[in-house]
Amino acid sequence: MAIDCRQFVDGQIRDLRARVGNETAITALSGGVDSSVVTVLGHKALGPRLKAVFVDNALMRENEPQRVVEMFGEMGIKVDLMDAREEFLSALAGLTDPEQKRHAITDTFYSKVFGRLVRESGAKFLLHGTILTDIEETVAGIKRQHNILTQLGIQPEEAYGYSVLEPLMTLRKDGVREVARFLGLPKELSERMPFPGPALATRIVGEVTPERLDTVRAATAIVEEELIDCGAFQYLAVLLNDMATGIRDNRREFGQIIVVRCMESVDAREATVTRPSWETLDRISKRITQIKGVNRCLYDLTPKPPATIEYV
Ligand code: XMP
To answer: Domains in the chain and their CATH numbers?
Structure first.
């Protein structure tokens, strides 16, 4: 659906100014296109009364926190990098149930890390990049998105002491990208592949530990490098919770399994599987099975539905 970007941007800037008044707001930037657009809108509306923070939750891809801070610096928007790795890792320790993992991330983010940040900064508002698809899927009970609160009946004012503003809640991903281009964001941000808020935790079946994060992070870097020019909607690596027998250095090895997924979609509500060349898949498999402890690499052929794109 084509949107009138000028009208949308002007309207959101007016609304943000009216809602925030003379108070200050915080934005949690993740580097995805949604939170990037929200940060630029917030910066345009509020200038220095918007504090932009990148929370390093230990679940990000290789060099992602530093790269995002750098890109926004180049646009003249200062982003503070906050190291909350220990807090997230300890909240996730021992958890294997998908909903419990998501809940631990939501809770650590909103009530601990962000609650503290907001209290320290005195900000009364949190700008968030929730989009229409997040709301629909959460309300439909398909998945608990980490950034949905009011739709689940949680009142952030009462629960956490601040209000959440969601300027993109009428847009889907394609609309957000149109607005990003209109705002002049660099391509690396406007065309950025979707990446979930709970980050690599959605790609680890079973417990999220620093070691397992290292494994899926290394596999993710390989998949992203090999498929960068494939033009697909989203491609990713998943670490399963199963083990398989293999052979390394002439010895039997009980090793880990990585699944590679590459999907075509318009807005992530439905998705089909792409057909990378055999050579590409072969190269990915050879590289992934060089990661320490990984001796099997699978390609997932399941569309959405019945599967979802992520595994957790
Ligand atoms: P699924 O796995 O539900 O994913 O088919 C649909 C799209 O949404 C992304 N995704 C998320 N994004 N918070 C987000 O911000 C989440 O909790 C979340 N879960 C999935 C996923 O990467 C895909 O693009």
So the answer is: 5-190 (3.40.50.620), 204-299 (3.30.300.10)
